[in-house]
Amino acid sequence: PLMFFGTTNLDLCFNVERLPTPGESLMGTLARNPGGKGANQAVAAARLGLRPTFYTRLGDDDAGRLLLQSLRDAGVCADAIEICAGEVSGSALVMVGDDGSNMIVIDPGANLNVTPDMIESAARFIDREAIVVAEMGMPIPALNRLFEMKSDRGFKLIFNPAPVRPGLSAAAWRSVDFVTPNQAEAFELTGVEVEDFESAAGVAAKLLDLGPRAALITLGAQGAYYADATSSFALRAFPVKVVDTTAAGDAFNGAFAASLAQGLPLREAVRKALAVAALCVTRRGAQSAMPTVQAVDEFLKS
Ligand code: ADP
């Protein structure tokens, strides 16, 4: 009973010694990696042993076939996925420096054409006990429809507000159970910088004013901060050697949702998400960087 809604992209990923400056040409090595926030999150959950359903739109093209195969191979249920004739699949140009930093440009392609009616139709895959995860790459009217369906259907809603865009309705915000921004997204949503756990507390309070029941802010190498109306806690990130931070947030969100779906208590679910995200940044790529349940168990034991 775990369902993801979101974007799928083919990442054209250049590994470079350092990121270029405007006007500069650098040499690097290219890899074509399946990506897209929603797809990465669904794969992260599937690697942990779940069989999440994923709603996304793909073009009827080579990239779309490769992306669908990658989702299936990971164990994601593709029954809700739409293959769209005459449309191109989303793609992203990703540059990753040797220090693990990245720059990304996205052409959303078929991801851009999700309508509220399509969401309504895909929602037949959601059952009452379901946990639903959505990121912000889908069109806002589609997200509003999905979130507003929650009052009737009673699923649990995790909202990863990435990339931040305006237009989410007040009712939609109020239907969110967990909003999960990173530091940059938390700043865009509240106008206040998240520098450490202390400032995260103030920002989390501002996020709760938007309407969600709880805020879970990720702070990169620092860890994560949780707050709801009555409680809060911070957990430190696991120290690891960073190779590529691409999809760290997706690993975190996918693993957090999967852990809740498996019935882990909140704090344990956040800890598991931190472990999965830590392992993710030690590997190159997006979906290919998501660890298996065995790798996570071993990591947590060591
Ligand atoms: P995003 O990838 O969306 O920018 P963050 O940078 O906040 O989000 O990273 C998400 C999570 O990934 C963090 O909460 C942390 O658990 C993990 N993570 C990111 N960078 C590191 C790091 N250098 N070391 C360990 N864990 C990390």
Automatic annotation (TrEMBL):
<feature type="binding site">
    <location>
        <begin position="249"/>
        <end position="250"/>
    </location>
    <ligand>
        <name>ATP</name>
    </ligand>
</feature>
<dbReference type="InterPro" id="IPR002139">
    <property type="entry name" value="Ribo/fructo_kinase"/>
</dbReference>
<keyword id="KW-0418">Kinase</keyword>
<feature type="binding site">
    <location>
        <position position="250"/>
    </location>
    <ligand>
        <name>substrate</name>
    </ligand>
</feature>
<feature type="binding site">
    <location>
        <begin position="9"/>
        <end position="11"/>
    </location>
    <ligand>
        <name>substrate</name>
    </ligand>
</feature>
<feature type="binding site">
    <location>
        <position position="246"/>
    </location>
    <ligand>
        <name>K(+)</name>
    </ligand>
</feature>
<comment type="function">
    <text>Catalyzes the phosphorylation of ribose at O-5 in a reaction requiring ATP and magnesium. The resulting D-ribose-5-phosphate can then be used either for sythesis of nucleotides, histidine, and tryptophan, or as a component of the pentose phosphate pathway.</text>
</comment>
<dbReference type="GO" id="GO:0005829">
    <property type="term" value="C:cytosol"/>
</dbReference>
<keyword id="KW-0630">Potassium</keyword>
<feature type="binding site">
    <location>
        <position position="283"/>
    </location>
    <ligand>
        <name>K(+)</name>
    </ligand>
</feature>
<dbReference type="GO" id="GO:0004747">
    <property type="term" value="F:ribokinase activity"/>
</dbReference>
<dbReference type="InterPro" id="IPR029056">
    <property type="entry name" value="Ribokinase-like"/>
</dbReference>
<keyword id="KW-0963">Cytoplasm</keyword>
<keyword id="KW-0479">Metal-binding</keyword>
<keyword id="KW-0067">ATP-binding</keyword>
<comment type="similarity">
    <text>Belongs to the carbohydrate kinase pfkB family.</text>
</comment>
<dbReference type="GO" id="GO:0046872">
    <property type="term" value="F:metal ion binding"/>
</dbReference>
<feature type="binding site">
    <location>
        <begin position="36"/>
        <end position="40"/>
    </location>
    <ligand>
        <name>substrate</name>
    </ligand>
</feature>
<keyword id="KW-0547">Nucleotide-binding</keyword>
<dbReference type="InterPro" id="IPR011877">
    <property type="entry name" value="Ribokinase"/>
</dbReference>
<dbReference type="InterPro" id="IPR002173">
    <property type="entry name" value="Carboh/pur_kinase_PfkB_CS"/>
</dbReference>
<protein>
    <recommendedName>
        <fullName>Ribokinase</fullName>
        <ecNumber>2.7.1.15</ecNumber>
    </recommendedName>
</protein>
<feature type="binding site">
    <location>
        <position position="280"/>
    </location>
    <ligand>
        <name>K(+)</name>
    </ligand>
</feature>
<comment type="subunit">
    <text>Homodimer.</text>
</comment>
<feature type="binding site">
    <location>
        <position position="285"/>
    </location>
    <ligand>
        <name>K(+)</name>
    </ligand>
</feature>
<feature type="binding site">
    <location>
        <begin position="218"/>
        <end position="223"/>
    </location>
    <ligand>
        <name>ATP</name>
    </ligand>
</feature>
<dbReference type="Pfam" id="PF00294">
    <property type="entry name" value="PfkB"/>
</dbReference>
<keyword id="KW-0460">Magnesium</keyword>
<feature type="binding site">
    <location>
        <position position="244"/>
    </location>
    <ligand>
        <name>K(+)</name>
    </ligand>
</feature>
<dbReference type="GO" id="GO:0005524">
    <property type="term" value="F:ATP binding"/>
</dbReference>
<dbReference type="InterPro" id="IPR011611">
    <property type="entry name" value="PfkB_dom"/>
</dbReference>
<comment type="similarity">
    <text>Belongs to the carbohydrate kinase PfkB family. Ribokinase subfamily.</text>
</comment>
<keyword id="KW-0119">Carbohydrate metabolism</keyword>
<feature type="active site" description="Proton acceptor">
    <location>
        <position position="250"/>
    </location>
</feature>
<feature type="binding site">
    <location>
        <position position="182"/>
    </location>
    <ligand>
        <name>ATP</name>
    </ligand>
</feature>
<feature type="domain" description="Carbohydrate kinase PfkB">
    <location>
        <begin position="2"/>
        <end position="292"/>
    </location>
</feature>
<keyword id="KW-0808">Transferase</keyword>
<comment type="pathway">
    <text>Carbohydrate metabolism; D-ribose degradation; D-ribose 5-phosphate from beta-D-ribopyranose: step 2/2.</text>
</comment>
<dbReference type="GO" id="GO:0019303">
    <property type="term" value="P:D-ribose catabolic process"/>
</dbReference>
